[in-house]
Amino acid sequence: MIEGGYILIARKLFDSDIMDKPPHYLKLWLWMLNKAFWVDGSKLKRGQLITSIAEMQKVGGYKVGYRFRELSVGEVRSCYEDLTKNNMINTTKSTRGFIITICNYEHYQNPNNYEQHNEHATKRTRTTQVQHTIDEEGYKKEKEDNKTFAEFWKAYPKKKGKEQAEKAWAKFKDPEKILDEILPALDWQSKSSEWTKDAGKYIPYPATYLNGKRWLDEKEVTPKNGGFVF
To answer: For an engineered disulfide with 61, which of 55, 70, 85, 171 has Cβ 3.0 to 4.6 Å away?
Structure first.
């Protein structure tokens, strides 16, 4: 058993406008849900809590290094005024601060009002999870591609046609392996007579280099003592 009980958070919360607000809006909203009475009390009803601006300044605060930054009075007020405007809470003044009543508390904290975990819901959840995994893997690959391309671009002597080069780089299934092959090749190619003559006029464009797999070109051999190479 998990101590402390629980509160229910509807997934639709993460599609609401509060996600576009400053972070302390969501922090204070979740804190209100947690602090609210879950049963009727002698002075407060289910879904109500009593608090003060000073308390919310501390609750909504955060650490900046070793220093704790409390919210300003203005930040707290803008938050609860916005929650009131969006019909999420109502406030009433009290001798100890003010009472907050969470609107529709009964509706959102009643498990029976949520979609049942039937076969359809389970199937949809699994589909969402699979899509999330696919998206996450795609993001990881894109991030890794960007990292390896950045290393290639830094090493390549001709900085032209970057967009076309990025498209060519994205075609590689194993960019790390390709990078390990390219960097040693660029080391000698950038010193070759073909690439150094006429101020680098004959260095291929990056996209041309990648599409043509020019890192596989054979290293030129310089004749010793003016002799011939057979």
So the answer is: 70
pLDDT digits (tens, 9 = 90+) for 73-90: 999 999 999 999 999 999
Domain ranges across the chain? 11-113, 146-219
- Check the CA dihedral 18-23-26-28 and report its sign: negative
pTM, to two decimals: 0.51
Estimate to the nearest angstrom the gap between the alpha carbon of 68 and the chain centroid: 25
- Give one word for 204, left, alpha or beta, with left for phi > 0 and alpha for psi -120 to 50: beta
Burial class (CB in 10 A: 0-12, 13-18, 19+), 145: middle
pLDDT digits (tens, 9 = 90+) for 99-153: 999 999 999 999 888 876 545 555 555 555 555 554 555 545 555 668 889 999 9
> Rounded to an integer, what distance in angstroms lies between the CA atom of residue 148 and that of residue 166?
10
Question: Domain 11-113 maps to which CATH number in 1.20.1300.10, 1.10.10.10, 3.60.40.10, 2.170.120.40?
Answer: 1.10.10.10
Distance CA 135, CA 112 (A): 32
Write down the residue that tokens 């290293």 correspond to: 219
C-beta neighbour count of 24 within 10 angstroms: 20
